Amino acid sequence: MFDGPFDVFALIIAIIAFLIAIKASSQAADLRRRLNALEEMFYAQRRIQPPPLMPAQVQAEAPATAPAEPPPLAPEATPVPSPLVTEEASPPPEASPPADTPPPLPAPAPVSREPGFEERLGTRWVVWIGGFALALGGFFMVRYSIEAGLVGPGVRVFLGGLFALALLGAGEWTRRKESISNIAALPIANIPAILTAAGTAVAFATIYAAYALYGFLVPATAFVLLGIVAMGTLVAALLHGPALAGLGVVGAFVTPILVSSGKPDYRALYIYLAIVTAASFGLARIRLWRWLAVTTIVFAVLWIFPGLDTGDLQVAPHAFHAIAGFVLAALLVVCGFMFGPTIEDGEIEPVSSSSLGAYLFGAMLVVLSSAHADLALIAYTLLVGATLLVAWRAPAATGALGAAAATVFIVFAEWAVRANPDMLVLPGGPMPGVGPVATDGSVTLHLVMAAIFAAGFGIAGFLAQGRSNSAIIPVVWSAAGVATPIAILVALYARIAHLDRSIPFAILAVLLAAAFGAATEALTRRETRPGVAISAALFATGTLGALALALTFALEKGWLTIALALMSLGTAWISMQRPIPFLRWLAAIFAGIVTARIGYDPRIVGDAVGTTPIFNWLLWGYGLPAASFWGASIFLRRRADDAPLRMIEAAAILFTALLAFTEIRHLATGGDMISSPSLLEFALQVCMALAMAIGLERLRLRSRSIVHNVGAVVLTAIAGLISVFGLLFLENPLIWHIDVGGAVFNLLLLGYALPAVLMLLLAYAVADERGKVYANIIAGGALLFALAYVTLEIRRCYHGPILSTGPTTGAEQYTYSIGWLGFGVVLLGVGILVNSERARLASAVVIALTILKAFVIDMSTLTGVYRALSFMGLGIVLVAIGWLYQRILFRRQVPPPAPQTGT
Predict the structure, then answer these.
(1) Which residues are CB-contacts of 525 (< 8 A; sequence separation ≥ 6)?
(2) pLDDT by residue (tens digit) across 296-309?
(3) Which residues, in sequence order, are bridge partners of residue 741?
């Protein structure tokens, strides 16, 4: 039916199916051989078992069979009771051999061995390959006769049918011949099954060619003949086993590819595939061959793809194929429904659920490829409704609800994006093919579908509670009943309101929240049943989600971030009332969604942040989520310290830090969030990061949370990086032309003095909790920034607000030395008063730097009285420091003189 690469594809599929059939046949032969061996062993044991002995025989044989050591005697005090004798004695055996007659020798058991390579090659592989070659020969002979024009169409069809009958007759004759002659070596070769499978495939090809290629048969006749062949294949597979089933099904599905035509007729093709599917499902149902049902479903779904990418998509045949396959799967494959196999109550069977989901997927592809044509939408709606009906009647197919909900969301989401191509705008322009076209489905039909789906999933999800003894089934129903209406509402909002404010959609969201709330209240009042508690929690979460959407629809776009954060808080609170692990993860998932939303647009509302410092959209967009996450972490910590709690805590720290940093940037740039940074921004960021690190260090002592621990270290590292690269290099007023402001209250105080104080506090906060190296590094940073502040403030006194211009005079150099020396003395005094070794060591470092400056810089640059005063002052201070150390810190204790004794 299809030329070109489909031939290669068909050949590959046929080879794979042939290998599968080989494996199935080999397994059947092994089982048959083992069964024969067990039967021989059983009959051998029956032959060697001696007849029961009479009392006289027992007494006669007792001396010969007595053990070497006599058994221990019973105690005299405990007499052995005599056995009970019934009134009617058991009849003696008909014939018993004399006592001296030896038992017959056992017959030798048959030796079971694995066949070797030569045996496999000669008895199995050549037969399988021969049968496969026969089928391919028939197909290619028909193809060659068509291409070369050797014989007429009627003769081709007649010869094909004759060849098929010959193969079928040969297969039946060999099967009967085996049963008559009782040859044990032939069944392992599967000769009857191979011949019958080849004949079945040729018969399918012949009838299909007579109908689709030459028009010899009307649709009714072709339908009847194909049905007869399919039923014959079913009956033959019951007799010949899985090898015939595998080859016959694969051959039937590959036939339309091998026997191709120039213009495909999808109507005839899908009628033919429906008959093949019915036969395959019927065989799989009778023999309970799950692999056959799965293989049929895979091939049937693959046959939906041809024609989807063409401009003239034939919607009706493709929709018929999806509906027919769905109906057949529901009737014959789904356990516990109509003619499907039975299954225990409360069990979700994978094949039952995946079979319905596969055909729903095919129907969804038809809808998307046809640009939401009305006929495709109606067919898809029928299948979704049928999925709810089948899953309601047969719990084994409950897993198909997930596939139904997912495809519903995909259909409506694609419809929303198709009508709003600006959602997929890239830097190079909109993506091709996403714009609205005239063939888009009508809005009215989509709205009707949305109402049906939302009501169907929601009501069924509520009514399904308490109908099963298994917890998973009502939970799946409730999850689908909550997620599907919310997903549909979001898609309709994007399609119709274009993500702008919409009071009607906000009202719909409030009504949906009220419905979910009523369902939650009703479920909490019911008696305890499996899954009811989890379902009630899911409906409660849906209530919070719908309320959050109502806020999003009624307010600006940025409120979506806040609404999702509030959903995380509400879910965490619900997890306190209903301790369900899934709710903890759901709260963490909401936090992750909000974080991803921030990564997409850090400004939350684009350019509409506002210009008012602090009280702008950043406060709401970051502050409310941060508060929600902190509250959620408090709720979750009351029950456990697990992964969801850590995710929430990480989100709380992240949004708190982002709130601080973005507000600082907004303040420093006057609302221009994309301008270059400044000294004011770096100074405020360092101070804020250090303050948050101090807070987390205190908090982790109580919570013992690894997130608080890591967060404190990360914020400290961020503060250190901004301090070094931002304050000391990129925005250093000593290097760059920066106005630092007034004489005392200026940017130097904010950028260097205050960070030094905060670093000192942080160093003392971690002194006894972390390593000494970590605390000493932070203390060293405090000393560096304090010394930098003293230096820059002195330069501010000489040069004004611009520190990078003007020469450095001798008086300025001398002032630096005096300032450093005074700073060192102050540190020493503090260290002596509070008995702090760290402060005294810092004093020693500053004084050492002063000494180095005096001998390296002052000696070469200062002249006259400034040089003398510099060294004189340095000397006096050093002597005073030495006196302090000798008299106060390390005062030498002089031992009292020894008393003199009289002579």
Answers:
(1) none
(2) 999 999 998 887 87
(3) 746
